[in-house]
From TrEMBL:
It is found in: Membrane. The keyword Membrane applies. This is Cytochrome c1. Residues 66-202 form the Cytochrome c domain. The keyword Oxidoreductase does not apply.
Length: 280
């Protein structure tokens, strides 16, 4: 009798516990149905990258070597101070149209040198870069180590468009309605900067491209040196660093498609010739 009573009490307690959980679940679901999920500041103020039309876009895209050289200059004069390009070798700059002498000079004059360990002395030193070396890593830890840019257009959704939008997004105002609803989100914490194209709206990197850099970069091919143009050019350059063989891949892809179409036509012709007049 006692055992049956204990089992009954346990059953009622368990049933009550399940009932409380069901009531809580129903309250949550009904609340979401009535009011919806509360909008966050990131959802209200964050914007997707703007469209960026580059010559390399699309399955038949080609690199504009003049633009890539301008983009490399922007990287060299502005971005290289903080961001590495450690998966790219100096000699690969030949793909941008630089000759051997120019590449040697770029490697030798690069401000960050190659680290060298002296086994006898047990100390680290450095030497000049050579064309065979990769771009040396940048050790910068004021606000954490900035990401390497070698594959940045592959590692970020929307690729070059994201990089371009981020570069020019520091001065763009957020949506007025969202800013009115979340005014506190516009106040960046100390050491951070507001950018509506960054996922959580605030990042440690200050605006890398400003009017102050125009004289530092200064294009020599007649292209106007503006913040927008520099952002487009460096984005195009970073597309190249992520996939320098893109043009060859496109050419091979077109050749393979043409071959497959031709082979399909031959195969169908052979099929019609061999099985002509036969019921199947």
């Amino acid at each position: 009798m006692t055992s049956l009573l204990m089992r009954s009490i346990k059953f009622l307690v368990g049933l009550g516990f399940v009932g409380v959980l069901l009531i809580a679940l129903w309250g949550t679901i009904s609340g979401l149905i009535r009011e919806g999920t509360p909008q966050t500041a990131e959802q209200a103020l964050h914007e997707h990258p703007k469209e960026l039309h580059l010559p390399s876009n699309g399955p038949f895209g080609k690199f504009d070597l003049a633009q890539l050289q301008r983009g490399f200059k922007v990287y060299e004069k502005v971005c290289a101070q903080c961001h590495s390009l450690n998966l790219v070798s100096f000699r690969e700059l030949a793909g941008l149209g630089y000759n051997e002498a120019e590449i040697k000079k770029i490697a030798k004059d690069w401000p960050v040198k190659q680290p060298v360990f002296d086994n006898k002395a047990g100390t680290w030193g450095e030497r000049d870069n050579t064309p065979a070396d990769r771009f040396p890593k940048v050790y910068y830890a004021a606000n954490g180590t900035p990401p390497d840019l070698s594959l940045i257009t592959k590692a970020r959704h929307d690729g070059a468009a994201y990089v371009y939008s981020l570069m020019v997004g520091y001065t763009e105002k957020p949506d007025a309605e969202g800013a009115k609803k979340f005014p506190e989100a516009l106040k960046s914490p100390e050491g951070l900067h507001f950018n509506k194209y960054f996922a959580n709206l605030h990042l440690a990197m200050p605006a890398p491209l400003t009017d102050a850099q125009i004289d530092t970069v200064k294009y020599t091919d007649g292209t106007p040196t503006t913040v927008d143009q520099m952002a487009q050019d460096v984005s195009a350059f970073l597309v190249w660093t992520a996939e320098p063989t893109m043009q060859q891949r496109h050419r091979f892809g077109v050749a393979v498609l043409i071959f497959l179409i031709f082979a399909t036509i031959l195969g169908y012709g052979a099929y019609r010739n061999v099985w002509r007049g036969m019921k199947h």
